[in-house]
């Protein structure tokens, strides 16, 4: 019965999952064991995330179970997705976000090889701190995911809002994964405001709104 359940899950989700590890980076050959390694793909954005009036750099990195930064990973040219999941799981790798030159809170996403997107969406709740939209690239067997809206509240990252995202929103053609400054038809800046579309949970007040993106509203820190 367990085997049947696994097969059903695989057919429903994982078989369509594609790995997109650092396709835009140069390969580095390890001559000792002939394993090809790739530098870990990283993203960064600028903004005033702590509200001090100065621009900050928010950068993403891959960390191991001890918190140390992981600089490179195998190219995974012939491994199955299950083997890649096992590789990350045994090492406890996770994705983290931190502000350069500022010892404030680190935001972590477990079992994630990277981020699908990291977007500065500006100060939506008028507290002088920019909010971020982030979707982790999780090492799992599902294409269901969430877009999280975070803000730095009293030097600690706080989730202000989240909505359902299907990972096909990040599918791409070509060698290099694009850097998303919005998520087409999921999170877009339209008519002077950010709008979102939750593919599983959208409430509408009238027929005209059905299928339309809705204004993104977030609460304050308190
Ligand atoms: Ca700042
Ligand atoms: Ca804000």
Record keyword descriptors for this entry.
globular; 14 strands; single chain
Structure commentary:
The protein is mainly beta. The chain has one domain (13-215). Helix content is 10%, strand content 36%. The protein is built from 2 helices and 14 strands, in the order αβββββαβββββββββ. A 4-stranded antiparallel sheet has the order 3-4-6-7, with no helix packed on it. Strands 8-9-10-11 form a 4-stranded antiparallel sheet, with no helix packed on it. A 3-stranded antiparallel sheet has the order 1-2-5, with no helix packed on it. The longest helix has 11 residues, at 2-12. It is globular and about 60 Å long. Bound molecules: calcium ion (2 copies). One calcium ion (CA) is lined by residues 48-50, 52, 54, 56.
Whole-number count of domains: 1
Structural class: mainly beta
The hetero compounds bound to this protein are:
calcium ion
| Biggest pleated-sheet summary | 4 strands, antiparallel
Report the mean per-residue pLDDT as an integer.
85
Instruction: Outline the low-pLDDT stretches.
Output: 1-28
The proportion of residues in beta strands is 35-45%
- Rg for CA atoms: 19 Å
């Amino acid at each position: 019965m367990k085997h049947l359940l696994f097969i059903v899950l695989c057919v429903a989700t994982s078989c369509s999952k594609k790995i997109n590890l650092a396709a835009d980076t140069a390969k580095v050959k390890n001559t000792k064991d002939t394993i090809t390694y790739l530098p870990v793909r990283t993203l960064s954005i600028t903004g005033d995330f702590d509200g001090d009036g100065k621009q900050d750099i928010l950068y993403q990195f891959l960390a191991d179970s001890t918190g140390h930064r992981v600089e490179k990973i195998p190219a995974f040219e012939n491994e199955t997705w299950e083997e890649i999941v096992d590789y990350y799981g045994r090492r406890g790798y996770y994705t983290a976000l931190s502000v350069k030159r500022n010892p404030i809170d680190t935001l972590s996403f477990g079992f994630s090889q990277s981020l699908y997107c990291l977007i500065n969406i500006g100060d939506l709740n008028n507290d002088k701190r920019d909010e971020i939209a982030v979707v982790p690239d999780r090492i799992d067997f599902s294409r269901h995911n969430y877009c999280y809206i975070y803000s730095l509240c009293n030097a600690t990252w706080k989730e202000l809002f989240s909505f359902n995202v299907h990972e096909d929103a990040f599918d791409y053609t070509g060698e290099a994964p694009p850097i998303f400054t919005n998520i087409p038809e999921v999170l877009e800046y339209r008519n002077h405001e950010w709008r979102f579309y939750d593919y599983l949970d959208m409430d509408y007040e009238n027929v005209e709104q059905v299928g339309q993106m809705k204004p993104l509203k977030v609460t304050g820190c308190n």
